[in-house]
Each structure stands twice: as structure tokens, then as C-alpha cells.
Amino acid sequence: MPEIETNIVLGDCKDVLKGYPDEHFDLIVTSPPYADQRTKTYGGIKADEYVDWFLERSSEFLRTLKPTGSFVLNIKERVIDGERSTYVIELILALREQGWLWTEEYIWHKKNCFPGKWSNRFRDAWERCLQFNKTKKFKMNQDAVMVRMGDWAKTRLKQLGENDVKRFESDTESGFGKNISNWVGREMAYPTNVLHLATETGNKNHSAAFPFALPEWFIKLFTDEHDRVLDPFVGSGTTCVAAQKLHRHSVGIDQMAEYVEMAKLAIANHQPTLF
């Protein structure tokens, strides 16, 4: 079996990626610094400057991603002066103008999100994982992320009614139809676009928690063994560790020297860490 290559590079991804050829990566999965956050580490890019800052870098993502590849962006708006910022919505529109297709939005439900109380809202329990593509035909291994059928199957499929053994059109004429009998005897089902994953807090040396299972899931879904994965904001190396464990080549880039060293150590130890 060919040796899996994992490269951790110090620098700004917009500069580092200029050294890589066109259509090189099969998947880009990352969580960049959010607007007005990680001030001590990444400078805290202002919300009204964020889109321009990001587009400089995503132009290199677009160039280096294969036509069959996907770009998964984990990001979340923050609250500023009691109001949700719109910079993520603005970024989505700008990325479409740049040439990306906004294919899907996955939701990461943080099962153990930090408790708190605010006067005008409840605690954040989810973040966006936005999927972008260059073309409508991209690699997607849906069978690789199938899940076991839930307990509902034991009771729902035990006794089938007349409308369950044919494609039954909705009474509301919504256009949706289903044939429940198709699921009899199946042990596995396709997941939803909501990923229920706990945050990981074991690494106190990085400013953002990124669970190992998150990049692992997208790597399984969008790549094959020996494909190339890029994380342009690699932090402490979780994406590259996941890629290595799944026998994918990977490149991780970060402008913080301490995180680059942390990521290299994670790769050497072959242990899952935080983003």
C-alpha cells in the first residue's frame, strides 16, 4: 500500500496554496476563524471585512479543488449588540458570485454545548457546515455514512397498511410520496443532514473545539482512499489526523507556529485532537 503523505505547513493559506497546482485536492474541509473571534490568535477579522478577507483565500480553494471535489465550511454567525451578524449570509452570496455552487447545508448539533443565559435568546446548540462545489457532478459516497435503522422500524414496519405498500401521495398534495414497504428487511438507512456530535474539550491549548468525528464524516462521504484532503486553517491538526486514519493524503496550513507544531505532534502520535 502506498505511504500516506501528511504535510503541515506554516503560513497564510492564500500564499501557501499558490505553490500547489490546479485541481489538486479532492476535498477541502475547514473551520476558519469566525468574525470578531480568536482575536489573540488570528487577529479577530471584523464582520464588515470578513467577506473580502475570505474571498482572497477561497479563490485559491476554487483553483486547487478538483471539479469532482467538495468544499465544506464550518462556520457560525455570532451575536453583536444583541443582533445576529449577517456576514455568513453575505459570504454565501459572495462565494456564489466567485463561481461556487452552494450545494447543501449540514447542521452540526453540538450535543453538549456550553450552558448559559442571555436576555434575548437561548444558547447556541448548532453550527453550519456549508457544502460548496465547482460542478453539479461531484464525488459522494453516500453508503459510507449509512446509519443503523432506528427503533421506529420495529413497530412501524411490523404492520403495514394499504397505503404503506405503494407510493402513497401526501393528502396535502405537497408532491411528497413514500412507499414504506421499501424499508422492510433493511438494517441500514441514509442519515439526515443534521450531525449530532459532542464538542471536545480535552485540548486547552487551542481556542476552538472541533470534534474528530466531524471531518471524519465528511472525509468518508466525499473522498476515497488515497484522495487528497486540505484543511487551510488546520489548527491543532484534527482534519489531517482523520485523513491519515482513513488512508487519505492531506495538507494542513496554519499561520500560527504553535498550532503547526501541535498539529505535527498530533500526526506523529496518530491521536485525534481538537481542530
Question: Can you walk through the features of this model?
Answer:
The structure is a single chain. The protein is an alpha/beta fold and 275 residues long. The protein contains 8 helices and 14 strands. The strands form 4 sheets. It has an 8-stranded mixed beta sheet. Helix 6 (213-222) packs across helix 7. The protein starts with 5 loop residues before the first strand and ends in a 6-residue tail after the last helix. Mean pLDDT is 84; it is low at 163-168.
Task: Kindly summarize this structure in a few lines.
About 25% of the residues lie in helices and about 25% in strands.
**Given the C-alpha coordinates, what overall shape results?**
globular
Question: Can you count the beta strands?
Answer: 14
Q: Which stretches are poorly predicted, pLDDT < 50 over at least 5 residues? A: 163-168
Mean pLDDT across every amino acid position: 84
Count, helices: 8
* Biggest sheet architecture: 8 strands, mixed
Strands ordered across the widest β-sheet: 1-14-13-2-3-7-6-12
Helix content bin: 25-40%
Question: Could you give the distance between the termini?
Answer: 28 Å
Q: For the CA atoms, what is the radius of gyration?
A: 21 Å
Order of helices and strands: EHEHHEEEHEEEHEEEEHEHEH
Structural class: alpha/beta
Instruction: Provide the β-strand percentage band.
Output: 15-25%
